[in-house]
Amino acid sequence: MYIDSHCHLNHKSNDEGSSPSELITNAKANNVVGLQTICCRISEEYDQLTAIAEAHDNVWCSVGTHPHDASNEAEKKYTLDDIVRLSKHSKVIGIGESGLDYFYDHADRKDQAESFRKHIQACQETGLPLIVHSRDADDDCMMIINEEIKNSPKPLNGVLHCFSSGEAMAMQGVDIGFYISFSGMVTFKNMQWLRDIALKIPQDKVLIETDAPFLAPVPYRGKPNQSAYVEYTALELAKLHNKPREEMGELTMKNFFTLFDKAKDTWVQM
């Protein structure tokens, strides 16, 4: 059994326009017993994602603004208090995804940093985990996280999602107690360096995700991704660690509930 810790059920790029309900049904038919659908634009997605989560057992969501949208005026209106308030929904189990993206630079870097700090502070206020997006911004991302940890007596936990950064960032993340989440990229032929990093991560800090509809694993690479395919990432990690796939599923599910422990409040045994 698997849990997809990060997907986007409402994204327009989903396979052949499949509805969230269809994607959830297909996931559950493929041993996925739970999933988290991630918020990128609070102003447009929060109501939609909470409604999806409310309508389905073992489907949860997050609240947050993606770094791509950090300069969006509708998103900038959401204060720290707003994010804290919205996070109280019973199916909201994480805050993000938020972080820095210097690869595309769709948003002003100052706006990205301000938004990121706001999300970190919301995590410290609520105790919910931070879902971190970082692309070509490893040093600044970890600098901001460490500064906010130093500035607050309240603890911070979180996950470096869809990890594709360098080993240094992975180890820094683990050192502060963060989890590392691997996507279908770990199955790509040219990603041996990522598999090498995956082997170095403590097994109690490993999560799996699809980031669907993006980054479909082999053998679906190049096609729209979906939560039903998260098993392929688990299988690759199981092979790396010389574990049965059932054990890797159990391990990553346990890790999910340890980090996103609010999900246990609404968990329905399948």
| Structural shape | globular
Biggest β-sheet: strands ordered side by side in the sheet: 1-2-3-4-5-6-7-8
Q: How do the helices and strands follow one another from N- to C-terminus?
A: EHEHEHHEHEHEHEHEHH
Under CATH, the topology can be stated as TIM Barrel
What low-confidence regions span 5 or more consecutive residues with pLDDT below 50? none
Specify the number of helices. 10
Rg over C-alpha atoms, rounded to the nearest angstrom: 17 Å
Helicity range of the residues? 40-55%
Note the main sheet.
8 strands, parallel
Q: Could you state the CATH homologous superfamily?
A: Metal-dependent hydrolases
In the CATH hierarchy, what is the class?
Alpha Beta
* Count of discrete structural domains: 1
CATH architecture level-2 label: Alpha-Beta Barrel
Content of β-strand? 15-25%
> Structural class of the helices, strands and pairings?
alpha/beta
Distance linking N and C termini: 10 Å
> Strand tally, please?
8
Whole-number average pLDDT? 97
